[in-house]
UniProtKB/TrEMBL annotation:
SUPFAM superfamilies: Subtilisin-like. Belongs to the peptidase S8 family. One of its GO terms (biological process) is proteolysis. Residues 29-113 form the Inhibitor I9 domain. Residues 138-598 form the Peptidase S8/S53 domain. The active site is at 146 (charge relay system), 224 (charge relay system), 561 (charge relay system). Pfam families: fn3_6, Inhibitor_I9, Peptidase_S8. Keywords: Hydrolase, Protease, Serine protease, Signal. This is CO(2)-response secreted protease-like. Residues 1-24 form the signal peptide.
Amino acid sequence: MASIQKLLFFVTASSLLLYGTTAAQKPQSYIVYMGSSSKSNGESDTEPAAELAHLQLLSSIIPSEESQRLSLIHSYNHAIKGFSAMLTEKEASSLSGHEKVVSVFPDPVLQLHTTRSWDFLDSESGIRSGIKYPQASSDVIIGIIDTGIWPESPSFNDEGMGEIPSRWKGVCMEGSDFKKSNCNRKLIGARYYTIFSDSTGSKSRGNRTHVIRPIGSPRDSVGHGTHTASTAGGVAVANASYYGLAHGTARGGSPSSRIAMYKACSLGGCSGSTILKAIDDAIKDGVDIISISIGMSSIFQSDFLNDPIAIGAFHANQMGVMVVCSGGNDGPDPYTVVNSAPWIFTVAASNIDRDFRSTVVLGNGQPFQGSAINFSNLTRSKTYPLAFAGALAAVSTPSSEASNCYPGSLDSKKVAGKIVVCMDTDPMVSRRIKKLVVEAAKAKGLILIDESEKGVPFDAGVFPFSEVGDMAGYQILKYINSTKNPTATILPTVHVPGVRPAPVVAYFSSRGPGGITETILKPDVTAPGIGILAAIIPRSDVISVPVGKKPSKFALKSGTSMACPHVAGAAAFIKSVHPGWTSSMIKSALMTTATTSNNMGKPLTNSTDSFANPHEMGSGEINPISALNPGLVYETSTDDLLYFLCYYGYKEKIIRSMSGTNFSCPSNSLEDFITDLNYPSISITKLDGRRAARTVTRTVTNVGSTNAMYTATVHAPKGLLVKVWPERLVFSRASHKASFKASFYGKTATRGYNFGHVTWSDGIHSVRTVFAVNVV
């Protein structure tokens, strides 16, 4: 699916080149990145001083006769140094050569990666309810960068919560529909930013130089931000459901944590410069974890110095703040995972053990179980004419377009009153569009034949809708052709619990290897991302609210956007129990304790029922309870990440600007050396089967019993020889760190990627380190 989309994107991109000459002279938003804002003493410039310095730099390249353009969209001055402004291509090029500038790049538009899930994660750990956790702190603060928040949601009730941590430096910004009183001891902060889309730069006024001030409010008008925030840290809300579906208690991963919202996005997307500003603000405000369910396109991925999330996350990591990001929804093709820098915690998506089914009943009484979320009023007692969309084509419309329910492809006179069967052989027409097309043509309902998306329920509101796979679709089409007057009905959705197998990696979840560098295994972990019940903004439109019902305070959504806050919430939960643990320790704990078997006791699978590999699921499905006591952790230091930048090929001068230190790169920096980064997984991109073994080194830290001995076990595919030494690691009060080496020899291994893992065990803990080795 994604391959066709890529081709169309490239065609579109090529056509845009025709306008290059004109565009080069027209100012557009650029990000000017100048490295670390922190000085050697840990301080940074004051905001007015930083803005003045940025404006002075800007005035050096903008012609005096265009002084009205002398404005900053955003000024970064806490952990990050730089700004965004309206520049021509020539001006941007001129600035890129300035000695204080690390990179200059066009401001990209990034896209949103759009309860029972937490109970499912708990049950999959093998530890049932009743476990007594150590006292969790309520001082952990989760920053959410998204579309805003609906503060009235019961998920953000602060009843019983203590005083706001004194280290919190954030604000609750007011707007036309948002007051300071909307914040409380749960929702402790809310910021918003101007969604800057005016490429003409008309927001500048006269000859004054200034920073453009935000307009709007932190209130969510999309629903995405409210949903992700409540998934990460929402309090427990009993009797939650989506119009009766998924009924139960809705809660976030860390109900005791505080939430701070940074509204940087709208329905149309997110400005990269605004996301960078939001990250800088979140660091300044004092958050512990930042959750970002947003990303660049996997088709046009930028390197780390031209990616605002990668830049912001680097500086957050430097300041001790964990950044968790969604890996993207461009699967199942390989090389589609985004947000893949080693300092980002990258998340894939999976299902949980429930489904939402809408039964299709044919006129001959034969039922087919479809997947959907619909609140139709159809019943078994009455059926309606059933027809294939290809036979309902408008005049001069190819049957192939009509069968895919293209806009304008159907004859409304033929469609009216019928249940229409559409195909999904063209990925450019989404389920939502197909539904709108047949609904506008006065159809009675829609049956969609789609093998890949059948496991991801689509919310059709009150419109009768059901999605079936290829086998069921074949039987339905066969029935249509077998009778003169085919009929059918589509029943409203029912909730089906206890589905097996689960978890299964979602078909849409973006896959590794990472397109920027394969020497870091991505994604890192998998978390629930299909049919997730969480808070939403109440909608009152008739197309989504069942008759006689009030707008729901909760909704079911799918995407790696939903998986990301699960990991952020799990990280906050661990941080609340282990406040002294660093971001890399928490990340390691969640990776090395991740689950690799489903609720049938078999290996995790993907949407095609094949065994899932680490390029699809990372280290596996997060297991927050087990991660509280991982035994050993891999600590990835800031120096490790600076060495990564050296090995990746960045110049020492740039790395010093980024780090704010006099760091020096090794003289023999090669990309292959990235494999030796002290990361909780291993990726070797080129293992020559005709040459000597490749050896990597890792260091682990004991966070379990003071005196412990761990023994290594290797699980490797046939033909790949993997040896670990020493075979035992011994820890004591005087020695809580130990190093080991792992060698990989592939003379008789299958060509291409080979996957396996090394497990260290002391009889109580199992510390699992996955590897991906590409034998060439």
